[in-house]
C-alpha cells in the first residue's frame, strides 16, 4: 500500500502537482517565520518563550495561523481573512439578489464573486492587521511578559502604517498561494494551507503534554493522547465514508442502431455531506467578537468584559453552546448551497434517469431534499459533538483547553487529509495504477 | 418519455410533504408538535438504516492511509519549521 506513495511520485503529471504543492507549503512556512519590519525580534522571541502555553484572546487564532500570529511575522494573519471573506460572501449570496443572479450566471458570474471575495479579504486583512499591531504596540499582546512594551520600539505613524501594509500584503500573498494550489496542485488550496498551519502546531503541543504529564515521566499522558487521537481519526474516517446511496435507473434508448444507457447507478449522499467546512466557518465566526474587543480602547466596559468572559475561553458554557449551534446551522446551510436537489433532479430528467418508484421532476427533487434533510441531522450533530467532546473532556480533566488535539483541529486535519488522499488516488487510477485504497 | 409522464400527472400543489411520505397522509392534523417530532425522529432512524457504512477492511485502509499522509506532512512541516526558525534567528537575532 505504501508503495502507492512512491508510485504517485513516479507518475510525471502527479509528481509535478505534488512537488508544486510541497513547494507552496515551503513558501507558506517561510513567510510564517519572517518578522514584520518595525518589530524587535529578540523581544518577541523572549515573550513567545515566556508565554508558551497561552490561553488568551489569540490562542485559537494563533493555532490557525501556525504560530505566526504571536511571532508577528509577515504571514501573521494566516488564511483566516480569506476564509472569513468567503463565508461572508456565501452568506450574502443567499441574501442579496444581485449576487444570487451573478451566481446563477455560471462561470463569469462566479469569477466576479471570487473577485469580490478577494477585495473583502484585503479589507478584513487591513482591519485585523490594524488590530494586531495596535495590541502589539500597547503591550497587551503578551499580557504577562515583562518586555511586552519593547516589541514595537518605534510607534510612529509611518512605522505602524508600514507594519499594517506588510501584513495585509502577506494576506494577499497567502490568498494567491491558496488559489495556486487549487489550480495547479493537489487538493483545495484553502484547506491545504489551513492543514499546514494546524500541522505546524502539533509536535510542540504533543511535546508540551509529555513535559507537563506526571504518569511515567509524561509518557503515560503522551501515549493516552496519541491513542485518543488515533481513535478519533478512525471515527472521523468512518462517518466521512458513510453514504446513503439513492439508486438511479437510466432509461435505455436507441440512437441509430446502438442502444445507450439502461444502466443503474446511485447518487451518493454522505451522512456528513458538508465536510469540515461548517467547523471552519463556525470557529472563524466565533473569533469575530474577540476581534471586536481588540479594537475597543476601553477593555473594561461591560460588553467587552462579557465577551472576554463568555466568548473567548473555550470552556465557557455559552461559548460551547453557540459553537455547537453554529456548526449545526452551517452544516445545513452548506449542504443547501452545495447540493441543489432541484438541479440534480432536473439533470436526471434530462438524461432519462429516475429513482425507482418516484416520478421524475418535482417529486424527485422533493424526495432528494427529504432524504438529505433527514440524513444531515445526524451528520451535523456528529460534527458538533466531535468538535466539542475533546474540549469538554479536557475541561473536566482540567487540562489546557486550547490544546491543538481538540476536535476542531482533528476534524480539519483528517477531513483535509482524506480529501487530498482521495484526489491523489483518483489521479493515480486515471493512469491505470491501482491506488492506495484498493 | 419521462417528460410526457410528468406533464399528465403533476402532483397537487400545496401539500408537498404528503408526496414524500404517503404513510403520514391524513394523520398530520391530529399530531401535535411532539408527535411530529417523533415521526421526524423515526424517519431519521429509517434513513440511517439505509446508509451504507464502510466495511471494516476499507475503514482500516483509509485510516492507515490518512494517518500516514498526515504524519508525513507533519514531519515535513516540522523539519521546515526547525530550519526556518534557525535561519531567521541567524539573520535577525
UniProtKB/TrEMBL annotation, chain A:
It holds the Pfam family SecY. It is a multi-pass membrane protein. The keyword Glycoprotein does not apply. GO terms for cellular component: plasma membrane. Belongs to the SecY/SEC61-alpha family. Gene3D superfamilies: SecY subunit domain (1.10.3370.10). The gene is secY. The keyword ATP-binding does not apply. It comes from Wenjunlia vitaminophila (Streptomyces vitaminophilus). It is found in: Cell membrane; Membrane. This is Protein translocase subunit SecY. Keywords: Cell membrane, Membrane, Protein transport, Translocation, Transmembrane, Transmembrane helix, Transport. SUPFAM superfamilies: Preprotein translocase SecY subunit. The central subunit of the protein translocation channel SecYEG. Consists of two halves formed by TMs 1-5 and 6-10. These two domains form a lateral gate at the front which open onto the bilayer between TMs 2 and 7, and are clamped together by SecE at the back. The channel is closed by both a pore ring composed of hydrophobic SecY resides and a short helix (helix 2A) on the extracellular side of the membrane which forms a plug. The plug probably moves laterally to allow the channel to open. The ring and the pore may move independently. Component of the Sec protein translocase complex. Heterotrimer consisting of SecY, SecE and SecG subunits. The heterotrimers can form oligomers, although 1 heterotrimer is thought to be able to translocate proteins. Interacts with the ribosome. Interacts with SecDF, and other proteins may be involved. Interacts with SecA. One of its GO terms (biological process) is protein targeting. NCBIfam families: 3a0501s007. The lineage of its organism: Bacteria, Bacillati, Actinomycetota, Actinomycetes, Kitasatosporales. The chain crosses the membrane at residues 68-95, 116-136, 156-178, 190-209, 215-239, 274-295, 318-339, 380-397, 403-421.
From TrEMBL, chain B:
Essential subunit of the Sec protein translocation channel SecYEG. Clamps together the 2 halves of SecY. May contact the channel plug during translocation. One of its GO terms (biological process) is protein transport by the Sec complex. Belongs to the SecE/SEC61-gamma family. Residues 1-35 are annotated as: Disordered. It comes from Wenjunlia vitaminophila (Streptomyces vitaminophilus). This is Protein translocase subunit SecE. Pfam families: SecE. InterPro entries: SecE_bac, SecE_sf, Translocase_SecE/Sec61-g. The gene is secE. It comes from the Bacteria. Keywords: Cell membrane, Membrane, Protein transport, Translocation, Transmembrane, Transmembrane helix, Transport. PANTHER family: PROTEIN TRANSLOCASE SUBUNIT SECE. HAMAP family: SecE (MF_00422). It is found in: Cell membrane; Membrane. The chain crosses the membrane at residues 59-80. Residues 24-33 have a biased composition (Basic residues). GO terms for cellular component: plasma membrane. Component of the Sec protein translocase complex. Heterotrimer consisting of SecY, SecE and SecG subunits. The heterotrimers can form oligomers, although 1 heterotrimer is thought to be able to translocate proteins. Interacts with the ribosome. Interacts with SecDF, and other proteins may be involved. Interacts with SecA. It is a single-pass membrane protein. Residues 1-10 have a biased composition (Polar residues). The keyword Transmembrane applies. GO terms for molecular function: protein transmembrane transporter activity.
